[in-house]
Every structure is written in structure tokens, then in C-alpha cells.
Design a protein that fits this description.
With 376 residues, the chain is an alpha/beta fold. The chain is built from 12 helices and 16 strands. The strands form 3 sheets. The chain has an 8-stranded mixed β-sheet with strand order 3-2-1-4-5-6-7-8, with helices on both faces. Strands 9-16-15-10-14 form a 5-stranded mixed β-sheet. A 3-stranded antiparallel β-sheet has the order 12-11-13, with no helix packed on it. β4, α6 and β5 form a beta-alpha-beta unit. The longest helix has 20 residues. It starts with 6 loop residues before the first helix and ends with a strand.
Length: 376
Amino acid sequence: MSQSFEQQQVAAARVMVVGCGALGNEVLKNLVLLGVEHIVAVDFDIVEVGNLSRSVLFSKQDADARRLKVEVIAERLKAMNPAVEVKTICGDIAYDVGLGLLRQMDVVIGCVDSRWARYCINRLCMRAGVPWVDGGIEELEGTARVFMPGKNCYACNLGPEGLKDMARRMPCSGNIRRQEQAGHAPTTSVVASVIGAVEVQEAMKLVHRDALEQGKLTSLCGKMFYYDGQHLTTKLIDFQAYDDDCAMHDMWMPIQPSALTVRKTVGETLSEIRRAFGAQQAVVCLENDCFVDYIVERSNDRKTQVMRPGHAVEQFVECDKVLRGIPLSNMYQHEYREIDELFPYPLCTLSQLGIPANDVLHVLADGQDYYLEMVA
């Protein structure tokens, strides 16, 4: 007798979907049709005309108005099922999703188009102890994989060449443009429907932990599902690696609750850490980025104040009237990766440091590691 999903477990499942493009559209649509009622959607992009040929939830009106993808997603999913609760994050998985929020999820589904984004999802999920499902598509080919803390790690599977190439973005929108320029009909929507269905199926298996452990269901963890639509073939390929020495899947344990928020200043935060642990010294470690207070042009030593997280420096330079057009290679930045009593901006808030809401802070109190979950 076949094992079906339990409706109560499906409705109660908390699922985060990262990426709301072609694949994300299919995944989100399937989740709601199955009856999932608690969804977090993450994406930083707007709807464009190029999205319409492969995204079932977007319209021309959305593209004309340049609406945020997550805004449209929430509206369309609620129209499909008014009972669904959709939380949206317009941001980058690398910097804008708090680990505390991710810890509330039963499963994360990745619908992203770069190795870097997958690497960041994997880093967060391994820290939080949450399994995640990855999907990838191109033309008429697609893959799906499952990664679980303690069993399978995306970073361990990359290898040296993969790590070197990780920052390259290869979005499906570029593939669409190449196909259209060649006079070909884009096929992304076709393969997205196949891989999106497999991703949701595997995510629901992870929600049904008991059935998995009893062998009533079989997870894709440790395998890669490969679909070739051109020749109508599928393969299951061994895809499992878990190196105990890999720093990317160090689980942050134990995580302790705290009254800290991103609205707290550095001074207030360090004071609360010292008080909470009876410590003389306190340090906040910036694990995902750095804080840049100024940059210096190499040619003339001119200093420009930035006061932003490291990932926002390039955008700052592009928008600055004086610096615009100067290559970043002609500058160096002064940055902080640890914040302690010597940090010269004690009134700077944690949000200004680039720490997202609901994050988990890695702190040191008299040299001892602690992990503190912040409140919203």
C-alpha cells in the first residue's frame, strides 16, 4: 500500500522557499495546492517582462509596475488559499535572513540560480539543523537534491573547482535571452514544472520524519535526481559527501534566547552580553560579512566614510558622485569582523552593522563561545 502525506502535517509544516523565479513559482504553487499553510518566501528581485514566459504567478501588469516578486507571490498565494500565511523577505539569503527565523522552519527549498546562493542556504541550514531541498534547471534539463545536517552537505560536495567557481551567477534569465535571440521557444517553464514538483515531494517527505525513519518513504538525500527532457530519461546519481572537518556545517549549539534586537546599539549589546554571562570582555562576531567604516583611494589616499556592511560597498561606490566610475580595485576598505569595546562607533545599531532581524549572534564572553537568538 502506498504512503500518502498526512493533511494535518502538511498544513502545519513551516516551509521557506528561497528564490521566486520560474522554479520558485512552481514550488510555491504546489505547496499551496497541497495545503501547506505556513510559508516564508525570500527574493530580492522585481517582476520583469522576461519572467512572464516561465512564471505562472506573475502577470504583465506586475512587470509594467515593476512590483517586487515577493509582494506578488504573497498576493497570488492568498488568492489561491486565504488560509495560507505568507511571510515575505525582500532580500538576499546571504545577508538578510535571520538564523532564528530559519530555525523555525521544518524544511527549506532552494530555487536559486547560483552556487553562491546555494552555499549560503547550506551554511544557514547546517547551522540551524534544518534539512533543505535544492533544485536546478537549464533548457530541458533539471536536477533535484536533498541535504541534511549530519548526512549530506552541499559545500562538501562542491570540491576545489566548485568552490573556486562558486561566485559565478548563471541565472536562467540569461538562458532565456540566449534562446529567444536564437529564435527558440524558452523551455524553462516545462522543466521547472518537473523539478519543482520533485522538490515539493521531497520537502513533504522531510516533514513526515516518522514515515522516513520507518522506511515508508525514501528520501533523495545522498542522491541526485537528474531529468533530461530532450531524451526523456531520468537518473539517480550518488551525490553524498560529509566531511567532519568542514567548517560550513558546524551546528551552532546550544542556542540561547535573549532580549537582544537589531535596534540595540553596539554599546547596549556588549553591556548586555557582559551582564548575562558575568564577563569582563564581550565580542560580537560578524560571521557572514564585515562592517566597513571607510574606504581609501590608492592613488591619492582620499578617505571616504561608508558606514555599511561589506556587501553594500560596491553599491555605495556606484551611487557616490565622486567615486562613481572608479574601480573597486583602486580602493581598499577598512573593515571590522569582530565588534568589541574598542569599536569606535558604540551608538551604531546591530541593524546598521548588517545583522538581520531574528538572527542568532555568535558572541564571545571572556573568550567563551555563545549563540544568542535575538527577538524580532
